Give the backbone structure.
Amino acid sequence: MGGLSVLTKRGLAALVVGVVGLAWSTAQAEPTKIRIAWSVAPAQLAPILYDPPGVAKNHGKTYVLETTRHTGSSNTLTALATGELDIAPMTFNVFAPAILNAQMTDLRIIADEIRDGIGEYATNQYMVLKDSPIKKVEDLKGKVMAMNGIGGGQDIFMRVMLRKHGLEYPRDYTIIESNFPAMRAMLVEKKADLVVGVKPFTEDPRFKSAARTLFTQKEAVGESDMLFLTARKGFLEKNRAAVVDFLEDYVRVTRWYIDPANQKEAIAIVSKFTKAPPEQLGWIFTKGDFYRDPNGRPDVGQIQKSMDMLKDFSFIKTHLDVQKYTDLSLLDEAAKRVK
């Protein structure tokens, strides 16, 4: 009746400490959730990153990846800004305004996805009808161009090419917006005189039979880094170990997909995911596809060049130093683990 004995109290205290320690240990063992966006596969590997068996070493152990499809970089940026995403693929034309206009100065480039026109690899095409009287860039004066977004990457690159030939927007031509899957119809139905053609849509036999290439993105601006992965500084600092583990897996899987020895298996994975017939996918992860760096490293110089184009066309008001908003230290740490 006089209360608990000293021994009993000590036993309870030890039990409490043990329970707290077990809970802390369990919490520590929980994999970190990393939320990442994607728009188009297989250009973006996120939704098929773990399909190659046994390649990713860390997924499910130190982190788990949660993938969400977004229609493009603008929507992805909004989700990143509101805390709905942790890692976001981004294009240069969205990255710069995010920092300069939306004041997301904690945004960092951490890895690469795809580049256009590297060596013999694929480049986006600017296309007209096969029987069109448009034979050279100067013939586009007074014509209608269909782009996937005014101020987007393909729009900027087109304007660079037309400016080289003395044509300026809006003085000399009109731009309308259309999504990539509708570009063939825009051309065939003569709603536009020129459209931007990107894979996989340009692989459609109907597109090939109706259109021809007037010029390419590479002819307009040279090699360009089209898409790269970004994250906010606070997230990287808080979850550095998990992000490094993710990037290690990202590099391993990228190398697996671009290895010619895995081509047949890769086609089967992409066909199952996209529902596209395997016979239409022979170009993926070859030189008929966009270039992927085997170490996942972005070309900061190419990104800077594209940023400078934004200023030249008055889409941003001031110069942006890309290096200041790039952190490849996590990728470097991850790459050292990959043999």
Remarks:
- The chain has two domains: 31-116+224-282+291-335, 125-221.
- The domain at 31-116+224-282+291-335 is CATH 3.40.190.10 (D-Maltodextrin-Binding Protein; domain 2).
- The longest helix spans residues 6-29.
